[in-house]
Amino acid sequence: MGKLLLTIMTTCLGISALLGQELETFIPNACEGGAMSLVFSEEGDFIYTAGKSEYVKKWRVEDGKPVAVSPALGDQMPQIIRVGDHLFVGGRQTDILILNETDLTLESRWPGHTYFVEDLDFCAKSRRLASVSRDNSFRLWDAANGENIQTIAPGRADLMAVALSPDGQLAAFADAENEVFIHKINTSDTPQIMRGSRPVRKLAFSPDGRWLVGAAGNQLLVWEVETRALVHRFRGHVGGISDFIFLPDGQHILSAGLDRKVILRNLQTGRVRFSFMPHEAGISALAFDTSNQRLATAAVNGEIKIWRLSLLPIQPLPEMNQSEKGAGF
After folding, report:
1. Which CATH number fits domain 26-306: 3.90.1720.10, 2.130.10.10, 3.40.1110.10, 1.10.760.10?
2. Most CB contacts within 10 A, which of 90, 103, 179, 271?
3. Rounded CA gap, 268 and 168, in Å?
4. pLDDT tens digits, 181-232
């Protein structure tokens, strides 16, 4: 067990306290080439990994032992999300794959895309799944039956990232030519375009739906959803940001990069609350277990570490667990 402790003044939370990260579980060689996506089970007792191999794997958090392995699914699985008792998988295939959460058997495939499925997201309120692909299309699906409800091809460039708003009314997607689109779901409106200086590789709405955050190179970009205005560019990583996640309060965000850093910052001010280096190699993915205040970090050398955090009384917002989204690297 290793422990890192540091004292910080948590002005934004109105208290001063001790924040710590205690290493709870270490899984060496969990994913060849590094996990590109991590997802906790609902109760936090298992974690699922996918990456630069053709398998999704299930691990027991308590002791880091493997529990189940999927059948071979294809070369690279950069994205998994959990929806109920199933895992939805995107990657180097044209179908969305649906696995049983318990034993990782392949239960079904959703055809539709004609090239690699790059990213997925799910909204619990609307029960909709979103996908984007290098076939330049955004697709919206009924998560219950796989019906393709809507398809949009906004341009000629590959689509790389997607996010659904917590209320299920908006979708955001980003292409390989530095454009981010916001679309009103189930309308024929032309998606609004927000241009950046480099491609956005991951998108996520804040839990309250006020902000849209994107990872572009070594920057986190923050847009105000109501005005569509870019309000912040947060820097701090040297090299690309591989993943970011919101904490349960919706006001703080954790980012990780190939510089080996994990950085916690306030979303509205950009103030860095703390940073640490959990691995000797660059970090490829993050996941947060809200049930047990655990943080999982994956490195490009294949190892995974699960940390028990003392994160102060940061309270979840209502419906925080609407989307269990893994990260594309």
Report:
1. 2.130.10.10
2. 90
3. 23
4. 999 998 888 899 887 678 899 999 999 999 999 999 999 999 999 999 999 9
